[in-house]
Amino acid sequence: MHRRAPLTIWLYVAFEMWRLVLLTAAVLLCVTAFGVTIKYLADGKLSPADCLKVMFLFMPPMLHYVLPFAACFGATLAYHRLAADNEALACHAGGIGHRSLLLPAAASGLLMAAALIGLSNYVIPRFLHKATEVVTEDVTRLIVASIERGEAVRFGDKWLYADAVSELGPDPRVGAYQRLWLGGVMVVSLDRAGEVREQGSARVAYVWLQRTTGRDAAASGAAGLGDSPSSDNAPVTRILFQPEDYIGVRRGLRGYDRGLVQSFYVSNALIDDPKFMTWPELQRLRTSPELIGGVDRRRRELALAIAQRETAEALRRSLRADGRAILTDALGQQFVLHASDVRPPNRRERRQNDAAARNDWLYLEPVPGQTRVLMDALGPDGRVQRRHMANTAWLRFHRSGASGFGESAVAPGIAMGIQFNEVSAEAMPADGDPAPPSSPGGPDQDDDDEPMPAGTVLEWRASQLTLANGPAAEFIDESSANLIRAAEAQLQNRPEDGAMIGAPLADLKRRIAALQREVTSKIHERLAMAVSCLVMVLLGAVMALRLRDSLPLTIYLWAFFPALATVVTVSAGQQLTHQQGAVGLLLLWGGVAALAGYTLVELRRLARH
Question: Are 174 and 210 spatial neighbours (Cβ–Cβ below 8 Å)?
Fold first, then answer.
């Protein structure tokens, strides 16, 4: 006689279990989302209204960790009630075995695992992206709140501190939606080892904030955008920073700057990470790794390194032909460089400049008949406003972007930086009147400011300069794969270019390999968490049936600690896979396998009774 399936029991158990799972998940979601959001509220990065919005946006991402534990807890309580009320014993006496009784838990676990796969690969990255975008979209609030709390603001390897800050409103002259006044400014630049590389101060500084996109930032030649947005349409803030009477110290050299504008970009959303990407986006990273900012930055560095020779040759031709070259900074101000040639320094010249010990510095030779290299700052009318004269002058091309205070933010082309040693400066009179301020789009300076007296021995630097009518970086839009092939071909034909191209080429290859490992680790982590959710549901149900005479929380602890260990091994395995490769998958899936083995052992012990 064919035995009918116990649909009534299955529906009863499934309803009870899902009721408890949903209730537990709701409570845990509220607690965890509030715990994540409260830090931003306490730090002043969110208003109370935004705090509620961010809490809602963080709830789906929290399901990645909340759902497995809520499912385990709900299954434990539902099956414990079934066992404690002797309903499981009655089912067993009626011919319904333990395996049949566990079918609702298995079906529910499969459904939750499938839902978690869909959430983690499609829904959670979107909500996580939106939540972080809300937190970081108001750059003005972040800067002002940090300064008012007496904290330094970090931009890349630069730390900016100010005693006071004031919002001055929009500035249509430079297309800024906000302009900030900073008083008592100090800037500290750190190297990769965390040591102080440069520090300086200014009595007053101004900051302009402009809205742009990832596509515009990349098109502007912003090689130093850093971890730029993975989406071309992602919001980006361009920050222009102009200190007045800046005094800086670097390696024992004291520099003076009356108002040179520096600029850099800040992504408005922390989306340059595979964890913010959906499954299709992760798959695209396999063939197009430059979609991620870290790879794209190194791709641009390699493209700029390849194109650097063309720019150097164009600059050399201009200097040799006319003894001058016209350069443009980030705000469009023009400078005229007076020199006769640019070339690699010899041993004696390297000893004159500690920074020139690196291979990326070139030596500027004075015009024949003169002993100094000149740099003229031109005003809007084309007249010389200020002249700098240096006994020795050096030029370098921006690679990873950092030069001065910010990142390269220049028009398409190759960005350059110039350093003057033993420099004197003087304001150039126009019709007997003092020269106007050096930055046409900047704030007004005090009329009674005395120009820096000629003959003062200082160091002066200008960065983010491009050669007028110079060659653009023709490789800037090439894919990483094509760029690597072009660089390898160039090194094969011109081995002497190894000093220039070898390092960025190796760096790009290393970053692509690390990205591929990270993508693999994220894909397996999401899948392993979904499978562990299924195993946790079964473990909770099995432990509840086996320990029916124990308290519910005691039973849950027998399932909770192994489940917690599994989550830890999955996270640790993801990190190990990211760092070392496929060997980390053994740890990642080993925890899930151990939890499944533990569940099978307990199920066999249950079956013996």
Answer: yes
492, 493, 499, 502: CA torsion to nearest 10: -30
Round to whole Å and give the CA distance between 179 and 161.
Answer: 17
Instruction: Kindly report, residue by residue over 544-571, the tens digit of the pLDDT.
Output: 999 988 898 899 999 999 999 999 999 9
**DSSP 8-state code for residue 368:** T
CB 398 within 8 A of CB 391: no
Instruction: Say if residues 257 and 248 touch (Cβ distance below 8 Å).
Output: yes
Interacting residues of 101 by C-beta distance below 8 A, sequence separation 6+: 9, 13, 82, 88, 91, 92, 545
Q: Show Cβ contacts of residue 348 under 8 Å, excluding neighbours closer than 6 positions.
A: none
CA dihedral 157→521→129→262, nearest 10 degrees, is: 20
CB atoms under 10 Å from CB of 172, counted, come to 7
**What pLDDT, in 10s, does the model give residues 201-236?**
888 888 888 877 655 555 454 433 444 444 455 567
* 492 CB neighbour count, 10 Å cutoff: 8
Q: What angle do CA 300, 305, 307 make, to 5 degrees?
A: 95
What pLDDT shows up at residue 394? 86
Phi-psi region of 184 (alpha: psi -120 to 50; beta: other; left: phi over 0): left
What is the DSSP track for 268-314? Answer: SS---SGGG--HHHHHHHHH-GGGSHHHHHHHHHHHHHHHHHHHHHH
Tokens of 8: 């009534």
| H-run or E-run covering 475 | none
- Summarize the confidence of residues 522-529 as an average pLDDT: 96
Q: What are phi and psi of 251, to 5 degrees?
A: 55, 45
Q: 53 exposed, middle or buried (CB, 10 Å; 0-12, 13-18, 19+)?
A: middle
Segment 531-554 shows an average pLDDT of: 93
pLDDT band for position 188 (50/70/90)? Answer: confident
Single-letter amino acid, residue 353: N
Strands (E), 35-150: none
Nearest alpha-carbon partner for 241 in 337, 345, 159: 159
Specify the 3-state DSSP secondary structure of 332: coil
What tens digit of pLDDT does each residue of 349-405 get? Answer: 666 665 554 556 788 889 887 888 999 988 888 888 888 888 888 888 764 343 333
Other beta carbons within 10 Å of 185: 24
Q: Are strands 384-397 and 361-365 parallel, antiparallel or unpaired?
A: antiparallel
Strands 196-213 and 158-171: unpaired
CA atoms of 574 and 517, how far apart (whole Å): 9
Of 107 and 44, which is predicted with more confidence?
Answer: 107
CA distance linking residue 76 with residue 530, whole number of Å: 18
What is the model's pLDDT at position 196?
80
**Residue 148 is encoded by which pair of tokens?**
């008012």
Boundaries of every domain in the chain: 7-136+515-607, 143-285, 290-476
The answer, as to whether pTM is greater than 0.85, is no
Query: 95: phi > 0 → left, psi -120 to 50 → alpha, else beta; which?
Result: left
